[in-house]
Specification:
This protein is an all-alpha fold. The chain contains 5 helices and 2 strands, in the order H-H-H-E-H-E-H. The protein has a two-stranded antiparallel ribbon with strand order 1-2.
């Protein structure tokens, strides 16, 4: 911790020491792109699940990305829109099932609360995407 001097400034010796520590840390600590780290983690997870069980559904990374990255139009303050968190939670459960190589949650059984007077997802877009999920087939 840097301490102030009697005059209210910082102790120059401590500042130089901190600069030296930061300089050494910067030279010795590899800094990776967060997207590269996330991509490697995803690839490792996919590889682990792909070889986990014979006969288990194997979903492609493109299929998983399609579900994970899906965006819907947000409607403001209409009683007919779907609650964002309910829809997002359902889509998360689909991606988890895909990664684990298990049966997907049945889209016909998905129920979403009305968003009430808050913004929410367009129900037609969500329902159309649920139909897409219902027709998805594993690639392997």
């Amino acid at each position: 911790m840097l301490r102030r001097t009697a005059r209210g400034g910082l102790n120059l010796g401590q500042v130089d020491g901190l600069r030296t520590v930061l300089s050494v840390w910067r030279r010795t600590t590899p800094i990776e792109d967060p997207q590269d780290v996330a991509r490697r983690a995803q690839e490792a997870e996919l590889a682990a699940f792909a070889g986990a069980r014979d006969g288990a559904p194997r979903w492609s990374s493109q299929q998983m990305d399609r579900v994970r990255d899906k965006h819907f139009t947000l409607l403001r303050r209409t009683a007919t829109s779907y609650d964002e968190s309910d829809v997002d939670d359902y889509l998360d459960s689909v991606v988890v099932a895909m990664r684990r190589g298990v049966e997907l949650p049945d889209p016909a059984q998905a129920r979403f609360a009305s968003s009430g007077l808050r913004r929410g997802y367009d129900p037609k877009e969500v329902d159309d995407f649920l139909d897409e999920i219902a027709h998805l087939r594993p690639e392997g």
